[in-house]
Amino acid sequence: MPTKKMHKKYQRPKYIFVVGGVMSSVGKGVTTASAGALLKDFGVSVTAMKIDPYINVDAGTMNPTEHGEVFVTYDGYETDQDLGNYERFLDEQIPSVNYMTTGLVYQTVIERERNLGYHGKCVEVVPHIPLEVIRRIEFAQARIRSAVTIIEVGGTVGEYQNILFLEAARMMKLKYPRDVVFIMVSYLPIPRTVGEMKTKPTQHAVRTLNAAGIHADFIVCRSEKELDAKRKEKLALLCNLQNEGDTISAPDVPSVYQIPLLLAQEGFGEKLLKRLSLKKRHKGDLRQWRTLYRILSSVTKPVKIAVVGKYFGTGKFTLADSYISVIEALKHACWFHKRKPDLTWIDSEEYERNPRKVRELASFDGILVPGGFGTRGVAGLLRAIRFAREHKIPYFGLCYGMQLACIEIARNVLGWKDAHTTEIDSKTSHPIIHLNPFQAQNVRSRRFGGTMRLGSYDCQLLKGTKAWIAYRRQQISERHRHRYEFNNAYRESFEKVGLIFSGMNPETGLVEIAELAVHPWFLGTQFHPEFQSRPFRPHPLFREFINAAIQKR
Ligand code: GLN
Questions:
Q1: What is the CATH number of the domain that holds 364?
Q2: Of the segments 53-67, 311-325, 470-484, which one has the largest average pLDDT value?
């Protein structure tokens, strides 16, 4: 018999599904993350999950220009960039079980069928696929034991691709009628010729959702402007909402970090709690968010950073989605120093077409080369790195940016003209960056999906180095996503010319961080520090890189 005390302690898990209406790219991920941040601020434990409708089993094989950045979880899964938003907004590590795709769900069901897991039954798309989706959601909840699990369903309602996920959501509502809430994030256009906000597309989207057997409890109304009282009332009436307060106005704002504050103004956190019959444990004043917003909206002194890479065209903020975690990490660090991030995207191929153009880099306070793959743009990246090294401009290389920095030093300092990574030149006489035997096996057998060195690995820091100064710790753990490594046969030669290997993996002896002894700040990491940067806790290396950039200025 459950005692009264036990009864009190037991809290049924709650689920919030977030679906998109009308069109994509209206900030469903940030809305999911912000709703979570509001609940967390009230002291409620939250986790967030993403369901992607692709056949791809994970996001790892997709080109970033196709799908934006590939985010890497600490436990080594390659996911959609929205998991990065959840981590940044919730300040939590999101595990790989919080991500699924159509491909992954089907793969599990098919494997189970092959192993007689369905005991001779006919395995059908419905109900077996939605049931597997539900199993995964419940598993993820049980792992973290979060009071609230927010599930973002990728795509837009009415799409053929996400029907089975909506079916899973409908079944969950049937299973837990009082513990499942639906949010639709919709878009309300303001056609230029009409000049006023139109609610009709949202009404249609709600009807489409209804046809899937789902009733929206809240509609988050994304638009250029705020939703007025008249439209709130109209939408509530026509979309079957309990009252007009269930339409949440979410106008465009300059920074995504403003969105929790914006939603709080609408009382969204409290409304969600009430609908889920949950009590707040804290007052919920969003103090950290307010401080962050005060800083980011008032800083004026710029730090000029050039991000030299590929996967984007020329100009400012083109395809910024490919590097969203890098951009956010740069912003967090700039705000920490009370500076305004002034980021310029440079396509490294420009420096191949016009080598003299590299001189423009002199006008920047810092140069960053992010991760990448393959040959295209590499010659231009090497030019940019050489310029940073010779002109003493703070340089930060992330993964490929570290590997290429070593190649640049090998060629121009050590004089090994054909030094290269075997990713590009398998016949080089100086394979500075190469494949380890385990990875070579993967490449030979063409096993590419999910086989890189992925997720968190430990790194031991060398005292007194720039890396150590940043972390002030002996041992750190950072996330990886790469196949190639620094070739330790060349370590000594590099050390002789002043490259310090300031971070090493304690088990394998692999190089994790390399930095120049004589340079204001020239450091590369084999890992991707950007994945662990948070708005209230900038990453130590980004913080020190920006500090060096400010000094240069
Ligand atoms: N292409 C390099 C490798 O596979 C670097 C990868 C990266 O920058 N993430 O090792």
A1: 3.40.50.880
A2: 470-484
Q: Whose CA is nearest to atom 9 of ligand 1?
A: 371
Banded model confidence at residue 61, pLDDT cuts 50, 70, 90: confident
Ligand 1 centre to CA of 309 (Å) is 13
Same domain, 79 and 145: yes
Ligand 1 atom having least distance to the Cα of 528: 9
Same domain, 250 and 354: no
Residue-level length of the chain: 553
Q: Is 202 exposed, middle or buried (0-12, 13-18, 19+ CB in 10 A)?
A: buried
CA 517 / ligand 1 centre spacing (Å): 24
From 71, 78, 434, 484, the mutation candidate for ligand 1 (largest count of ligand atoms within 8 A of CB) is 484
283 Cα–ligand 1 center, Å: 45
Q: Where does 305-455 have alpha helices with state H?
A: 324-336, 350-353, 378-390, 400-412, 437-444
Residue 341, SS3 per DSSP: strand
What is the number of alpha carbons within 13 Å of residue 285 lying toward its C-beta? 4
Residues in contact with ligand 1 (CB, 6 Å cut-off): 371-373, 399-400, 403, 423, 481-484
Q: What is the mean pLDDT of residues 338-359?
A: 94
Residue 535 C-alpha to ligand 1 middle, in angstroms? Answer: 26
Averaged pLDDT score across all residues of the chain: 93
Relative to the CA of 423, which ligand 1 atom is closest? Answer: 1
pLDDT for 3 beyond 70: no
- The sign one gets for the Cα dihedral 37, 176, 27, 129 is positive
Summarize pLDDT for 350-407 with one digit per residue, the tens: 999 999 999 999 999 999 999 999 999 999 999 999 999 999 999 999 999 999 999 9
Nearest atom in ligand 1 to the alpha carbon of residue 373 is: 1
Full domain range(s) for residue 361: 300-552
Question: What distance in Å separates the CA atoms of residue 129 and residue 37, rounded to the nearest whole number?
Answer: 30
pLDDT per residue as tens digits for the range 87-134:
999 999 999 999 999 999 999 999 999 999 999 999 999 999 999 999
Q: By alpha-carbon position, which residue is closest to atom 6 of ligand 1?
A: 482
In this structure, are 304 and 281 located in the same domain? no
Positions marked catalytic? 399, 528, 530
pLDDT (0 to 100) of residue 169: 97
